[in-house]
């Protein structure tokens, strides 16, 4: 869970400074409470962005043995949150549907997520996203609670596969 020596040393140093207990967080990963975002410095190198393949719904493979990119979806390693970045190649809004696959079921299904703020507590909505937000324009970054589904696939509505660029990442918190 990280180097506790540094944190302990920081705490000891802060208790000798007139009761000041503020210290800068220097760890990554899981935390018990929110961390302040203080580092706005330039980054010497960063990970190159990778794209994932958006497919048509008829191309999803229940057997997960297809050699074509995207037809088997992408493994989530049972993470809780999907970070999704979508762009279109022009000013039109193209719809992307999320499909989930559980190994226990052995089949793909359209992913539904709970809708908060509705009159019914049990309202669920299909996880569909447009490539651009009509009010703001430009790329869209959304975070979706996928609750540990085994695999995720992105399916384009209306055959606009070539016009959509998508990136995905997963996290536990």
Structure, explained:
There is one protein chain. Helices cover 7% and strands 29% of the residues. β3 (95-102) and β4 (107-110) form a beta hairpin. The chain has one helix at 4-15; strands at residues 74-75, 81-88, 95-102, 107-110, 112-114, 124-126, 128-130, 140-145, 151-156, 164-171. It has 1 helix and 10 strands; from the N terminus they run αββββββββββ. The protein has 2 domains: 1-30, no CATH class; 57-171, no CATH class. It has 173 residues and is mainly beta. The model has no long low-confidence stretch (mean pLDDT 76). It is globular and about 45 Å long. The chain starts with a helix and ends with a strand.
**Whole-number total of structural domains:** 2
Percent of residues in β-strands: 25-35%
Uncertain parts: none
- The chain-level mean pLDDT equals 76
Major sheet description: 5 strands, antiparallel
- Radius of gyration in whole Å, from Cα? 21 Å
Structural class: mainly beta
The CA-CA distance between the termini, in Å, is 15 Å
The total of beta strands comes to 10
Question: What's the helix-strand series?
Answer: HEEEEEEEEEE
Overall 3D shape: globular
Q: What is the number of helices?
A: 1
């Amino acid at each position: 869970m990280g180097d506790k020596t540094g944190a302990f040393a920081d705490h000891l140093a802060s208790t000798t400074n007139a009761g000041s207990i503020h210290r800068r967080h220097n760890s990554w990963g899981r935390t018990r409470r929110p961390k302040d975002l203080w580092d706005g410095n330039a980054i010497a190198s960063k990970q190159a962005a990778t794209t994932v393949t958006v497919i048509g719904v008829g191309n999803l493979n229940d057997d997960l043995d297809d050699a074509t990119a995207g037809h088997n979806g992408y493994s989530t390693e049972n993470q809780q949150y999907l970070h999704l970045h979508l762009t279109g190649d022009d000013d039109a809004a193209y719809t992307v549907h999320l499909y989930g696959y559980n190994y226990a079921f052995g089949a793909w299904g359209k992913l539904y997520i709970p809708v908060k703020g509705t009159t019914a507590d049990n309202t669920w909505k299909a996880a569909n996203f447009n490539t651009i937000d009509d009010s703001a324009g430009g790329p869209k970054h959304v975070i979706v609670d996928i609750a540990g589904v085994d695999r995720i696939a992105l399916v384009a509505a209306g055959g606009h596969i070539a016009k959509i660029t998508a990136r995905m990442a997963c996290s536990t918190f």
